[in-house]
Amino acid sequence: MRLLMERLARRDAEVERLKTENQRLMEQFVVWLYNAQIRGIGQAELGRPLPRVDRGQTKAELRVASNGRLTPRP
Question: Per residue, what are the HEC states of the chain?
Fold first, then answer.
């Protein structure tokens, strides 16, 4: 019985931790959403998929382009 009570207490603590983390993430999302809206960044742009990663390429082979993105060195 004691083991069951300890297990339930750990589970309750984990649930509370996750609720707190979820609340923090929701607040961060609201900040990001606000900042995106005031800069005119729309939902379509925000929802664009990430670029595909070429695992065979190293950072030494890349350069930062004027738009801030990594591109292959010429």
Answer: CHHHHHHHHHHHHHHHHHHHHHHHHHHHHHHHHHHHHHCCCCHHHHCCCCCCCCCCCCHHHEEECCCCCEEECC
Report residue 16 as tokens: 């509370």
CA dist 61 and 25 (Å) reads: 35
Could you tell me the pTM of the whole model? 0.60
pLDDT band at 18 (very low <50, low <70, confident <90, very high): very high
Give the mean pLDDT of the chain.
86
CA distance 2 to 48: 51
- The strand pairing partners of 72, in sequence order, are 62
